[in-house]
Amino acid sequence: MNSLLELNQVEAHIQKFHILQGINFGVKKGGVTVLLGRNGAGKTTTLRTIMGLNQVSKGTIRFKDEKINDLPPHKIANLGIGYVPEDQGIFGELTVGENMRVAMKKEDEETTRRMEWVLELFPDLKKFWKKPGGALSGGQKQMLAIARAYVNKNELLLIDEPSKGLAPIIVDKVTESIEQMKENTTILLVEQNFMMASKIGNQFFIIDDGKTVHEGQMEELKNDKGLMKKYLGIS
Amino acid sequence: MDLIIGLTVNGLATGMLIFLLAAGLTLIFGLMSVLNFAHGGLFIWGAYTGVWSFQMTGSFIVGIIIAIITGLLLGLVTERLIIRPVYGNHIQQILITLGFMLVLQEFIKVVFGPDQKAVFPPEILQGSFLVGDIVLIKYRLFIIAVGLLIFIVSSFILKRTRVGLIVRAGVMNKEMVQSLGINIKLVFMLVFMVGSGMAALSGILHAVYSGVIYAEMGLEFSILAFIVVVIGGMGSFSGSLFAAILVGLAQAFMAYYVPALSLAVNMLLMTVVLIFRPQGLFGKG
Ligand SMILES: Nc1ncnc2c1ncn2[C@@H]1O[C@H](COP(=O)(O)OP(=O)(O)O)[C@@H](O)[C@H]1O
Ligand SMILES: [Mg+2]
Q1: Domains of chain A
Q2: What interface predicted TM-score (ipTM) does this complex get?
Q3: How far is B235 from chain A (nearest CA, A)?
């Protein structure tokens, strides 16, 4: 077995639009793989397609060597993939505790242990346990979304732009939490905040106009000004 | 004074019957944005099978249970055969569920005959209590009690159990619920069945309340339920109780004081709500 998750020539449409036109990458077990690319490049669509929320029109997606592109989202999730969407997907009228309860598939020892761990990581969630999710701050929502994905024993987490719209100090907190999670979970991260991405990323793939156009080790990218400018608009 | 109380009891009883019908509709719409015009068909099937088994066995409880079982099973069939192929398409939903409504209605006539049938409450629920000068009709109190009980039990399930939380989460964000590993289709089927069971319960209770059943009453009564769903806010469970009681009371008082307006008053209420609060009283803007 080579990769935990593997996308091979994946194409996808949203309505009539041909959004993904050839996505190829593999996520190795362990560590953080970062998807980079400008706004509108197709990063979110890639994650949604992995989750089965968008249909694959061509190509294959494999998770643990099993082809998953025809499975419905809940089956994909139950194979061990947790998803933190770009908008966090918090259930606004449910409390923090109820959001967690919806997420918890089991109430066994392992799940309880993970719950305790994640509450220690994000004490705010414990503090606002009975507060409606919709009343949380942006940072707290992000933490809740990550906690919800982490509480089940998932092997892979897909996290979409967790730093978006957050104050720098909260970004640091979220970065730190992802660093801790990567100890025992593989993470596929979409991130525009280059500081964050380079701090926790191991390997990267660049998506441009719906295609993967570049890959490498995060270390190399930091020194490749040309590449950063061309695809990421960073100079 | 006793007139006011009498009209209030009438209004509350009608309100509860409408609530039982509207509750399923509002959850079905909220969860899957399905417009189900066949809901009234489940109501009449509950009424007829319930009355039939009540009259066969002499037991009202058996009648109620048979009505609910009919509703659950018919709900299952309706969801699988009629609703599933038309998810996401409102026009198709309206056409196919209205069509199915008529099929259910005509099929009633085939099975049970085309004539109206008279129905009487079971002995224990006939007559009335006298409290001071006030006459309280037993069967109406019974309907109010059943409606309240169903509301309390359903609210408890929606607020306190994981299944209930999943249903509410599904109303807010279906994709996220699925991404957490939950089979939303199964949840929806369950909600559809329970909603249909409640419609059928409403049917048998209403049959005995009005004293007569006929095949067209499903369509008539479900229009009230749709008005209630709009007033209460599509997808809001508490909203449907509140609006149902509002409509029930408005109708009861109007029927007494301004009979000519008793039907128009609900349309008027709905229009006013739509103008000032298009998302409904309890709906999310
Ligand atoms: N619902 C939609 N309808 C039409 N086009 C969409 C929709 N969602 C995304 N797109 C288009 O798909 C492309 C990729 O979007 P997205 O995956 O969100 O990009 P990224 O996450 O990289 O910023 C963009 O051009 C966007 O306009
Ligand atoms: Mg995006």
Answers
A1: 1-80+157-162+187-235 (3.40.50.300), 84-153 (no CATH)
A2: 0.95
A3: 13
